[in-house]
Specification:
- Helix 9 packs antiparallel against helix 10.
- The protein is 71% helix and 0% strand.
- It is globular, with a radius of gyration of 22 Å.
- It has two domains: 199 residues, no CATH class; 139 residues, no CATH class.
- The protein is mostly helical.
Length: 346
């Protein structure tokens, strides 16, 4: 099996330059939104705005606490509890009783009202503004992609996912950042990115690798998906432990038990699998394949280093958004590599 004899063909012309430009702008905005969302979570600003879509009942958040009603904490606390009870009732009606019980338990664990915090409120508000901008960009992409049969349904799917993501964001706030919903929120974001990369690739096809690499890239994508899912479980445990006073200073992520140990061990499996893919790609000695392999390797190694910093340096706040951002970029490079594999006839 000769991998070095593969010669990728020249790029095909774009179907639409305008569609390609808007798709790239949308993709970059999506990355910015994920980075902003990770900053929101790492800084504890997820409940900086206790209601949705407004923030403290305003379309533009206040800058001082005196701008709010005297009993604003009780007002928004009661609204959130009422809304979360409706969501729990809906989940129970749909047969998802475990999720309904989790929502009820979360409300019991967080009975206190949320005080106004300027930094957290505006951090969450900026995250929401980016979300609105992403929605506008994706709507434009959906309209521009409609004339093309091989793209139009992907554009429509992305638009539906963004609408679902917006509604899910309201549920996340109403349930006081329920771990399962936060995880689903993240996974849908990755699915949206995958669809956007599919639009970009179909609009301007580019072949990087031989079809022989597809099974390995599929395996690496599956491993990455498992690792991301397990990483969200680690993050949920961290959120629970951070409630304990001085946990960050007196403990470390190593105390989380088997959940973290599995996450750490699985990173070695991902390293071996992707290391083999990178080694084979470098053997091709084709500049596009080489650049793809270097990008994949760089993000993989840097992400493992950031994981070690989080584990052994008391979870520095600056490392958490970078860890999630690099994971997202790593998944994106893997997915684009899969899309860019040649067919068996080429």
């Amino acid at each position: 099996m000769e991998y070095t004899n593969f010669h990728p063909p020249i790029l095909k012309p774009s179907l639409s330059k305008k569609l390609q430009r808007w798709s790239i702008v949308t993709l970059l905005t999506l990355y910015s939104l994920i980075l902003a969302g990770s900053i929101v979570r790492s800084t504890g600003a997820g409940m900086g705005c206790p209601d949705w879509p407004k923030c403290f009942g305003c379309w533009i958040p206040p800058t001082q606490e005196y701008q709010l009603p005297t009993n604003y904490q009780n007002i928004f606390h009661e609204k959130r509890i009422k809304k979360s009870k409706k969501i729990a009732k809906m989940m129970s009606y749909l047969g998802l009783k475990q999720i309904a019980q989790s929502i009820t338990k979360k409300n019991q664990q967080q009975p206190q009202a949320i005080p106004f915090n300027f930094a957290k409120a505006w951090t969450e508000y900026i995250n929401r503004i980016l979300g609105i901008f992403v929605g506008i960009c994706i709507t434009i992409v959906c309209v521009l992609s409609w004339p093309y049969r091989n793209i139009r349904w992907v554009g429509l799917l992305v638009l539906c996912l963004v609408i679902l993501q917006g509604g899910l964001g309201a549920w996340v706030v109403a349930t006081h950042l329920l771990a399962g919903l936060v995880t689903l929120h993240m996974l849908i974001a990755l699915l949206i990115i995958a669809c956007m990369l599919l639009i970009i690739h179909r609009n301007r096809p580019c072949i990087l690798l031989s079809h022989r690499y597809k099974p390995w890239i599929i395996l690496s994508l599956l491993l990455t998906g498992i690792q991301i899912f397990w990483g969200t479980k680690v993050r949920a445990l961290v959120d629970q432990m951070l409630i304990i006073p001085d946990w960050r200073a007196t403990h470390c992520i190593l105390t989380l038990g088997n959940t973290f140990l599995f996450h750490r061990f699985f990173s070695l499996i991902i390293l071996v699998c992707n290391g083999y893919i990178i080694f084979r790609c470098l053997q091709l000695k084709q500049w596009r394949s080489t650049y793809w392999a270097i990008a994949l390797g760089f993000m993989l190694v840097l992400n493992i280093i950031l994981g070690m910093i989080l584990a052994y340096c008391q979870l520095p706040v600056w490392a958490q958004p970078l860890h999630l951002m690099l994971t997202t970029l790593f998944f994106s490079v893997q997915w684009y590599g899969f899309l860019s594999c040649s067919s068996s006839q080429q």
